[in-house]
Amino acid sequence: MRILFTGGSGKAGRHVVPYLRDLGHTIVNADLQPLGASGVDDLRVDLTDSGQVWAALTQFGDIGELDDPAATDRFDAVVHFAAIPRILIASDGETYRTNVMGTYNVIEAAVKLGIRKVVFASSETTYGICFARGEMVPDYVPVDEAHPTIPHDSYAMSKVANEVTARSFQARSGVDIYGLRINNVIEPHEYKSDFPAYLQDPDLRRRNIFAYIDARDLGHMVECCLNTDGLGYEVFNVANPDTSVGIPSAEVAQRFYPGVPVAREMGEWETFYSIEKAQRLLGYAPKHSWRDALGMERP
């Protein structure tokens, strides 16, 4: 596929873009900062400007394409990851404006240009737990896509608004638009630097529902979305199958979720951020674990 990938220079994108490139896709990275990855074209685009978005989706990525008689300026898919990535980076209003308008512009242009596959980054924060003031617990565990989304902050609000935008454009167009409620992205080097503290103090992971997503497995998730057609509008939790702490799930539930209903029987080390839907509908099969990086045996 020829793919416009927004936000490819960010924490998640800089792993996902090379992953997709290595699968043989042609990638144009639309970002304010270049990625500089071999074989990936960088295009500086302000996504809050609809004209720039439209132009990015209707032009070549580099001079080499001008010399290729078989090249086309048409994109087969859009993967939209660009955003202010959390609260407390910009003002709340600017975070909301940037994320909502950027997503609206990207999906609007993609749909009106007839692109039949859009994958966009939503967030675990939509469930209201991550950036809540004080402590908030889920309505039930494991948290699946049916769990209420009641955001408590401008970033999560923007992601819920983006899901409504995506659903609306899908309803009027019939294209496939898949939203990824991405959990805490972990780069490979962060296992050794960060996870020893998580093993010592599981409380550090309560805002992330004790879950995580390896950046490489996030690339696999995007691949699954690109390879799966005909679902219309869907949202998917994205995480690894195990928790990010060193105590069994039953002990996590006892210590941190007393009185919270358990919707179904869970595996001994199973994530509280359910990925069953992605496994069932997309064939999602993440393979990386913090245990491998720390030299610990998998259960």
TrEMBL record:
Residues 3-192 form the NAD-dependent epimerase/dehydratase domain. The keyword Ribonucleoprotein does not apply. It comes from the Bacteria. Keywords: Lyase. The keyword Translocase does not apply. Pfam families: Epimerase. This is CDP-glucose 4,6-dehydratase. It comes from Roseivivax jejudonensis.
